[in-house]
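dumping this here before i forget
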Amino acid sequence: MPSATNLELIAAVLATADAFLREGPRLFRPLGLTVAQYNVLNVLAESAAPAGLSQRELGDELVVDRSNVTGLLDRMTRAGWVRRDDDPGDRRIYRVRLTPEGRQLWEKTSPRYEAVVAQVTRGLTERQARDALAVLSRLKSGAARWKLGN
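structure:
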């Protein structure tokens, strides 16, 4: 049986995620983006893979359901922000990369996002942030192993 504190922790995590999901569009909509689209731009812009990421790798990094990745990338390709190239080593795989327009949009959007992150995390020490990351990592691992009835 979980402790009252653990129940409160999970409720707080969910409430925090919900608050970010509700407020995210306010930041990105004026720029013509959704939160999910910004996440794609951000993951691709910060990737060290010069050939781009496979759709699967991208899906693993995103904060969206994997089943939504193809449609999300279709819309972003039509907007001219990303491109999908065949993988030379595996014809079943597409490599996803930012276009120059996508990089320019990311460069315009990121300072706004970073300002919000600074505002939201104001008052947290580096140690507190690292401790929170460690706790969230354990919760994420636990959620991945979650089995109903066990």
